[in-house]
Design a protein that fits this description.
Surface presentation of antigens (SPOA), about 100 residues
Length: about 100
């Protein structure tokens, strides 16, 4: 039987600070930079009965399980990658990123 030597290692703590306007990830993306991905913003959810679901009519509202000022989640391929606040971006909604997950 071979003996396995296990020894602790010491890792240096990262002291990297992100400067304003600096990208979150510094990588050479020359090979992937042109690839488009789909991002989704999740505002919240609701639980209703099937009966209520099928009785919905145009103009009705469904209350979500989040407050108006709660952060929303940015997802890439169904996986949360960031959180932020909804903002107006011209005539559209936008997302101001406040946290990278």
């Amino acid at each position: 039987m071979n003996e396995v030597l296990v020894a602790p290692i010491e890792l240096e703590e990262s002291v990297y600070e992100l400067l304003p306007g600096e990208p979150l990830i510094k990588r050479n993306l020359a090979l992937l930079g042109h690839v488009n991905v789909r991002l989704d913003v999740v505002l919240g959810g609701a639980e209703i009965s099937v009966d209520r679901l099928f009785s919905l009519t145009k103009g009705e509202s469904i209350a979500l399980d989040t407050d108006l000022d709660s952060a929303v989640t940015l997802q890439l391929d169904g996986k949360p990658i960031a959180r932020g606040q909804l903002v107006a971006a011209g005539d559209c909604f936008g997302l101001k990123v406040t946290e990278i997950l």
